[in-house]
Amino acid sequence: MIDFIPVLIYFFAVIDPIGTLPVFIAATKQHTPVQRRLIALMAFVASSVILLFFIVAGEIILTAMHIPLAAFQVAGGIVLFLFALTMIFGESKPEQEIKMAATIRETAVFPIAVPSIASPGAMLAAVLLTKNNVYTLWEQAQTAAMMMIILLITLVLMLASSIIIRLIGSAGASIISRVMGFILASLATTNILAGISDYFGLSVAAVS
Question: InterPro entries per the record (predicted)?
Answer without folding.
Answer: Multi_antbiot-R_MarC (IPR002771)
